[in-house]
Design goal:
By secondary structure, this protein is α+β, with helices and mostly antiparallel strands. It contains two helices and three strands; from the N terminus they run βαββα.
Length: about 70
């Protein structure tokens, strides 16, 4: 994803984040995973969660798809 991004979810694992990203992408949204875990090599570093990012223009659609209009995933 190029440019700015917005976090729409923080989850416990990279796997869970990848599933969410796949679902968002299947609906035509631009989404990515970010985590401070050395590219997945050190999953124990995911203690602060793994973020799902989307383009600002896709935020409302992503939150609607996630059922998170009230920010419950963040």
């Amino acid at each position: 994803m190029d440019g700015a991004s917005v976090s729409v979810a923080v989850v416990a694992s990279r796997t869970e984040a990848e599933v969410i990203v796949g679902m968002l992408r299947s609906h035509g949204l631009r989404a990515a995973v970010t985590a401070d875990d050395a590219g997945g090599q050190y999953p124990q570093m995911q203690i602060e969660g793994v973020r799902v990012l989307v383009a600002p223009s896709d935020e409302a659609s992503a939150r609607r798809l996630l059922g998170a209009d009230d920010d419950t995933l963040e």
